[in-house]
Amino acid sequence: xxxxxxxxxxxxxxxxxxxxxxxxxxxxxxxxxxxxxxxxxxxxxxxxxxxxxxxxxxxxxxxxxxxxxxxxxxxxxxxxxxxxxxxxxxxxxxxxxxxxxxxxxxxxxxxxxxxxxxxxxxxxxxxxxxxxxxxxxxxxxxxxxxxxx
Length: 149
Description:
alpha+beta; Jelly Rolls; single chain; about 25% helix; about 150 residues; about 35% strand; 3 helices; seven-stranded mixed β-sheet
């Protein structure tokens, strides 16, 4: 009996470890001004169209990173949003090329466009960009276990 319990415990420990490794392998984080944000990636057209629309909140220190195949002036709006966001456009080198702070759901149907080409767009909770004193040309660091492009 004790031997079978020990085997089950060992099996569950190995399974938990492998699940943890898989989560870590696919996890993505971005760091801005020393603050790390866990990321949900929007890499497909369907995911980019959905974005954070319809969600009731964005947990602290998390964000959504929109990943595009080529640099462009990608526009964003607040359709079906329930909370305010900071929208940050990043170039291929992960430098901030534009940002809109405190964009509220009430701004819909206005579309916000950057003044420069971007390959990534980061959405985080409103107030974070100001709290971190983010500005143009600030550098982000991206750490992803999965391949982005």
